[in-house]
Amino acid sequence: MKYARLDAPGRVGVADAPRPVAGPGEIVVRMAECGLCGTDLEKVRGGYTASAILGHEPVGTIEAVGAGVEGHETGDRVFVHHHVPCLACPICARGDYMFCPTYAKTNLDPCGFSESFRVSADHVRQGAVLTLDRRVGWDAGALLEPGGCVATALRRIALPPEASVFVIGLGPAGLLYARLARARGATWVGGAELAPLRRLAAERGGIDATIDPADRSAVRDLVDRATDGRGVDLAVVATGAPSTVTLATSIARRGGTVNLFGVPPSGSRLDADLQDLYLRGIRLVPSYATTEADIAAVQQLVVDGRLALDDLVSHRVPLAEIEEAFRLAQRPQDSLKVVVTGPAR
Ligand SMILES: [Zn+2]
Ligand SMILES: [Zn+2]
């Protein structure tokens, strides 16, 4: 069986592994698609050091079910969440599942970019296997995890009704953020993005205004015009570029929120006027990862026809050509979401 792994810093390759077997309580899934995430790119570049396992947005078909598993059957189309919390520690008791010490240590075996992968008994027990609705295709399914990350962010921020939102960086995650904010009732959504292709995709997806962020004062003018000079309720940093955080704080309204959504490179620093943040009461909310309930809520939005995801996928690349998938995902002028395809598709 083939799977993708980090061969060396900067290099991703395809390797062989034995076909996984479903032990007691476990499930084996044949992969159909797995989205390529910005964190996968950062892992290959060496900028994201929390884990070296690639591919965490997989959908596929259950090919084996271990003894004692209930509610899942061979042939079911599923999405699988790669991280699960312990549900027993004090952090889980507060509902902060993403920060449970167990959470980031759990993963799929060997990874999502694999012809088949094993889902541990802990994953199965904690609800990481989500049956796909028949109205949710593979492309939309591969966007459920990033969609869940947006839903988790919006929940933690407690987005007010009829909010104004500005998203900096309209890559796959930013585009998804803009759409989900709209589906959750935002009345004005703007975005900044360097790549014209991605600005076009945003406008097609119903965003109100897009702009090239190279001219920061033009961004501030755009936001001022849309908000009568107040600034937005929520400014989202959907890129890893640390310099965009101060752009976000400058366009947030008094008492507004800045969401750190993109993964900043390890070691990056915040260079902001702290008194300005203090006096204007800017909330800085980082949001990492997601929960089973938020992922299921995103699937429900798709089923209800309130959130379109399929058209965000611009390229489907077979697992054997994974290097090409990484090359494409690093070309914002040519790509939106890149997904890797497997044998169940
Ligand atoms: Zn991701
Ligand atoms: Zn826990």
Biggest pleated-sheet summary: 7 strands, mixed
H/I helix tally: 12
CATH names the topology of the largest domain as Quinone Oxidoreductase, Chain A, domain 1
**Overall 3D form:** globular
Query: What is the string of SSEs from the N terminus onward?
Result: EEEHEEHEHEHHEHEHEHEHEHEHEHE
What is the CATH superfamily classification of the largest domain?
A: Medium-chain alcohol dehydrogenases, catalytic domain
Termini separation comes to 16 Å
Structural class: alpha/beta
Determine the mean pLDDT: 96
CATH architecture of the largest domain: Alpha-Beta Complex
* Number of strand elements: 15
What's the number of domains?
Answer: 2
**What is the CATH class designation of the largest domain?**
Alpha Beta
Hetero groups in this structure are: zinc ion
Which stretches are poorly predicted, pLDDT < 50 over at least 5 residues?
Answer: none
- What percentage of amino acids are in beta strands? 15-25%
Q: Percentage of helical residues? A: 25-40%
Q: Rg from C-alpha positions? A: 20 Å
What descriptors fit this protein?
single chain, 345 residues, alpha/beta, Quinone Oxidoreductase, Chain A, domain 1, Rossmann fold, 2 domains, 6-stranded parallel sheet, 30% helix, binds zinc ion
